[in-house]
Design a protein that fits this description.
Layout (H helix, E strand, L loop, with lengths): L4 E7 L4 H6 L7 E10 L2 H9 L14 E2 L2 E8 L6 E4 L8 E5 L3 H4 L2 E6 L8 H14 L4 H11 L4 H11 E3 L1
Parallel strand pairs: 2-4, 7-8
Antiparallel strand pairs: 1-2, 1-6, 3-4, 4-5, 5-6
Helix pairs in contact: 4-5, 4-6
């Protein structure tokens, strides 16, 4: 069995764009590639445009093994490797991309922000992050930079920015 890697999954994405726009949750999952499906660039592109299509080679596969997600690794020349956990179905139920562990990518890992179990409103999230950063002694110019970056996109961009800057739970 291969060693586990960290993969951020999108649940029931319809196409590759949905996966790339997903903030991958707050906790990437340990994943083991139990099978590799090598595709041509054309096959990969067609697959990436319709994850809901039924495919015999996915049927009955996926799930978890020894505490890790058992995924099918999808490769193609000059394309990003995807990890698919069909959870026994014949479509790509969970599709993910390899991510680095959050701790190594977090700009201020000592700033802890509790977001789960709270209001998901964008302004609430911004306020929680800003308040936690102030309390932890982050310089005002850095907090302003965070606020500008977090507000420069959509809701998924906001969440991804929060996770890049702080230890979000």
């Amino acid at each position: 069995m291969n060693s586990a890697i960290k993969v951020g999954y999108a649940r029931k994405p319809s196409r590759l764009g949905d996966v790339k726009e997903s903030p991958f949750g707050l906790d990437p999952l340990d994943t083991v590639a139990v099978e590799t499906k090598a595709m041509t660039a054309e096959e990969y592109d067609a697959f990436a445009q319709d994850f809901y299509a039924s495919r015999d080679w996915l049927d009955g596969k996926g799930g978890s093994r020894n505490g890790a997600i058992a995924a099918i690794e999808i490769t193609a020349p000059e394309r990003e490797t995807l990890y698919v956990n069909p959870e026994g179905h014949s479509y790509a139920r969970y599709v993910g991309i390899r991510v680095e562990p959050q701790a190594s990518a977090t700009k201020y890992p000592h700033v802890h922000v509790q977001l789960t179990g709270r209001d998901g409103n964008a302004y609430f999230i911004l306020g929680r992050c800003q308040g936690a950063a102030r309390k932890a002694g982050v310089p005002a110019e850095q907090i302003n930079a965070f606020m500008n970056e977090a507000q420069a996109g959509d809701y998924n961009h906001l969440l991804a920015t929060c996770m890049r800057w702080f230890d979000c739970r």
